[in-house]
Design a protein that fits this description.
An eight-stranded mixed β-sheet has the order 33-34-36-35-37-38-39-40, with helices on both faces. It contains nine helices and 40 strands.
Length: about 700
């Protein structure tokens, strides 16, 4: 069945450049403070993250906040001289050095908001150019480079005006997909009339382009852009009303593109022929890091981080015929009780670095890749004999969590970004298993301000009232006797698919320094515990997630760690939603709450958020039209009369993910009921707080509030 060209979310592959929406060629823009070494002594404590290495493996481009805001820097792997390439105050979020070494592409978030732009600059700081996302109402995200460095992929997003109707998820599009294990949650299926995921047989029939009509406005469109600005951008793929899209890899001959797409819980990797923009096959991939894999040197295999048909993500080989059709899949590396969290292929595509998430702590391996196909390999049939990862070489890590892997020219010497419970984020070089901290990353001994004591958290395993085992980490304030019940802040992460990890969190450090314990749990819906755990909060399962918060609080009370009379709840994003929900569903449990960028009403959230965020969120929370009554029942505003305690909300003024009105309406309703309620609005911030002064203001304001309300 061919894709219906009238479906507003059908993939659109147009025939000629004349029928597509043109993306302007990159324009030169001035660069302030470019190509000058950093000539001010850096503060002792700063973070370095998101490394990308030059082709020779000698220099690293990375993000660093030593100037108070995350900016683009470069430095030698083994040297101390650092160079700031862009002194613009807009935060940098992603970095990628071109394979030919001539350009560094990066993503910036103007005013900290969600409408990002992609730029590039030469390694000496000259020639800064805007590639995409600079037009009002548009956003852009960075994709991969062509292997010769001649072009970089970018995805451009048009933002919708307020009040745009919510569009449903696309239906059957004629592209066959391998089996994906069934989901246990109770969310509404978003493809009315489409077949439910199930086993498929036969070759993928992708040899037909979709409609040639012009893409409608407010689409996700992926282009190849020449950073020199000498050639017009080339359209790779476009999807109307899409939830997500990123070009993760291009084959070395340029024939095929690997495109990451889909809403949360339903991510896919599409193989797209660049010549005619035909989608030849689609494969399930895991949530989390969007860089989900890449092609082998001959493009006969795609290596993917996938949880299709399994509880935990594994390394999967998808074998392709010369036209990009799927022949079959095979699991090359897996672990029975934990998932593959990060996958980075070497520059030559013959080996990979794997990061496994083992109960919140990373384990790193380097492995060779082999993809030997039999000529009579059955089309569309999985096989466990057609691919393998060689003997894995474990690499020891000095800290608990890997956040990014950057391959170098030497497959056995990757560069990684690390975080840990006793360090700020830093970049490490791992030549042949020897972990070396880069000289420009903060030293471990400088991670804590004077008067602050490092705290290694204790793992916890609360049990929910329905028997589900949860997770989390407990931080005990320094100097407190083991048997003394303490004032305690229960902190809830966002997502909800994020995971609490044993990394240094400045907010926790601030609270611990005020004599407050911190318990940071993983309630159902969190990642790192398997797909069933992630899906346990879908639809009406969110009521159980709200009860998980109460069960976690009860756990630390019964253990004698937390004082039942002095408990507070705090959280960010989805965690902010859970704060408000917990305060109205369990009004006598907490003395106060701090909700950061949280949703107070799921119906107004869907009406105000970015359209692609709404598309992705619908699978997790419920459809804003089909599940309207469920969303209303799950909204804290629907039970606001039950609120009994003071509440502080915090929001970025440019947050278009969860608009500030979500905090403002909750505070206004609390005040109308005679309760103490305040809203801290942070200037020049979006959904993530990236500027040093704002982060410090947030931490101190929240700690002051909690300390005051938890005092005896």
């Amino acid at each position: 069945m061919a894709a219906d060209a009238r479906d507003p979310l059908t993939l659109v592959e147009t025939r000629t450049d004349a029928t597509t929406r043109a993306l302007p060629a990159p324009e030169p823009a001035p660069l302030a403070d470019a190509a000058t070494p950093y000539d001010v002594p850096p503060p002792a404590v700063h973070g370095c993250w998101y490394p990308s290495v030059d082709p020779g493996g000698r220099y690293v481009a990375f993000i660093c906040d030593r100037a108070g805001v995350p900016q683009l820097w470069t430095a030698p792997v083994a040297g101390e001289e650092v160079r700031r390439l862009d002194a613009d105050p807009n935060p940098v979020t992603e970095v990628s050095w071109s394979p030919d070494g001539r350009w560094i592409a990066y993503t910036v978030a103007p005013d900290g908001g969600e409408l990002t732009s992609v730029l590039c600059v030469r390694p000496d700081g000259t020639g800064r150019r805007l590639l995409a996302g600079g037009e009002p109402g548009t956003s852009a995200r960075l994709g991969c480079w062509q292997h010769d460095g001649s072009a970089v992929a970018v995805t451009v997003t048009d933002s919708a005006p307020p009040g745009r109707p919510f569009a449903a998820h696309p239906g059957a599009d004629g592209v066959s997909r391998p089996a994906r294990a069934g989901r246990d949650g109770r969310a509404v299926l978003l493809e009315p009339g489409a077949p439910r995921p199930g086993p498929t047989t036969g070759a993928v029939d992708g040899d037909r382009a979709a409609s040639a009509e012009e893409p409608e406005p407010r689409a996700l469109s992926a282009y190849l852009v020449d950073p020199e600005g000498m050639a017009a951008p080339v359209l790779l793929a476009s999807e109307r009303g899409a939830a997500n899209q990123r070009v993760c890899d291009l084959s070395r001959d340029g024939r095929l593109a690997l495109v990451y797409r889909g809403p949360r819980g339903r991510r896919e990797a599409l193989v797209v022929r660049t010549g005619d923009r035909v989608v030849t096959c689609a494969l399930p991939v895991a949530d989390g890091d969007p860089w989900i894999g890449g092609f082998s040197p001959d493009a006969g295999t795609v290596w993917l981080r996938s949880d299709g048909d399994r509880e935990h993500a594994a390394l999967v080989a998808a074998h392709l015929d010369p036209r990009g059709h799927l022949l079959g899949t095979a699991v090359a590396a897996r672990r029975p009780d934990c998932g593959l969290e990060l996958l980075a292929l070497s520059r030559d595509g013959r080996s990979a670095v794997l990061a496994w998430n083992v109960r919140g702590v990373s384990e790193l391996e380097v492995t060779e890749l082999t993809a030997a196909r039999s000529p009579d390999f059955p089309a569309g049939v999985p096989s466990s004999r057609s691919a393998s990862a060689g003997a894995a070489r474990t690499v020891g890590l000095p800290h608990e969590v890997v956040t990014r892997i950057a391959p170098t020219a030497d497959p056995d010497a990757p560069v990684v970004a690390l975080s840990g419970s006793r360090r700020h984020p830093g970049v490490w070089w791992l030549p042949h298993g020897l972990p070396l901290r880069t000289p420009w990353s903060s030293r471990d001994e400088d991670a804590f301000p004077e008067g602050r004591t490092p705290v290694r958290p204790m793992p916890m395993s609360p049990v929910a009232r329905d028997g589900l085992v949860l997770g989390g980490w407990y931080y005990r304030a320094p100097g407190r006797s083991p048997g003394e019940p303490a004032p305690c802040v229960l902190h809830l992460h966002g997502g909800p698919e994020e995971q609490e990890r044993p990394v240094l969190e400045p907010l926790y450090l601030e609270l611990l320094g005020r004599g407050l314990d911190v318990f940071a749990p993983d309630v159902r819906g969190s990642s790192g515990h398997g797909r069933s755990f992630v899906d346990a909060d879908l639809g009406a399962g969110r009521f159980d997630a709200i009860n998980d918060v109460a069960d976690c609080a009860a756990h630390v009370m019964v253990r004698g760690l937390a004082d039942p009379r002095r408990m507070a709840v705090m959280g960010r994003s989805y965690g902010g939603y859970l704060v408000m929900a917990s305060l109205v569903w369990h009004p006598d449990l907490f003395r106060t709450g701090v909700a950061v960028c949280g949703m107070s009403d799921l119906t107004t959230f869907f009406a105000g958020t970015e359209p692609w965020i709404a598309q992705s969120a619908a699978h997790k929370y419920g459809h804003p039209e089909h599940d309207r009554e469920l969303l209303r029942a799950l909204s804290p505003m629907s039970r606001i009369d039950a609120l009994r305690v003071p509440v502080l909300t915090v929001h970025g003024e440019h947050d278009t993910n969860v608009p500030p009105g979500e905090s403002e309406q909750f505070v206004r309703a609390a005040r109308e009921r005679g309760l103490e309620a305040e809203c801290l609005l942070l200037r020049h911030e979006g959904h993530d707080f990236r500027r040093f002064d704002n982060r410090r203001l947030f931490r101190r304001t929240a700690a002051d509030w909690l300390e005051r309300h938890l005092a005896d």
